[in-house]
Amino acid sequence: MKKNMPKERSTAQMPVIMMFFPICLALIFSTVWSGHAFGQSAKLVLNTSYSSPITSPDNSGFLDLLYKELFGRLNIPFEIQALPAERCLTNANEGIDDGDVCRIADLVKSYTNLVRTTEPVMQYQMVLFSRTAQFKVSGPESLKPYDVGIVTGWKIIERNTTLHRSRIMLDSAEQLFQMLDQGRVEVAVIERTVGMEMVKKLRIAGVHILSPPLLTGEWYLYLHKRHAALIPRIDSELRTMKKDGSYDRIRREVLGRYEQGQAPGIR
User: Which of 73 and 37 is assigned the larger pLDDT?
Assistant: First the structure.
């Protein structure tokens, strides 16, 4: 009788197996990393230097609610953390955090590791708050005779307040309006709704908004470049939200009262 001989493995098959092994391994690690990055235990960390009504510690700000809806639709967990304005950008650019909730369009020139949406997340009006000054705003030159206060890291304001008698740069909107209330600055330059809310919060009386706005424009969501693949999805869903009415619904709920009337203390 013939003995059963052990089957021999063809050596010709080995190079093929070895060739596909690294590819399979890469796919496995890619899947695991992707699941970790946006799984239940990990979140996209977005920085904010803004106060209410743009973002708020109780998550009731406009961008808090907008991103809750937006990232919920995309099934991407996220959180918003508050940091000083300059540190928000630095941390995002260095990859310490994942992005910044909103900034002007051209920051990629200075922060080269960041990418932004092409669809704006909100519009802004940078206005002048004052208790004593009365004049029609006609560009940055209007500020020449005055002591001006701004928040450090608000790039569009930094660039447009170089003409002044003096300029004080503060770490927060609250500090800025405390300086205005104490008479240590004559003009505070900041986003309109943030300023209105701060006047209300600090119960500052006798403040008015000069017109027209110093600057108007649009803000965009920024992410670290490692998340560049998310940008087209975010842009697409933002456009969908603007078409289906959910964007305007959130805007009216949070920002409508600032469009309809002024805060207490503002003349």
Answer: 73
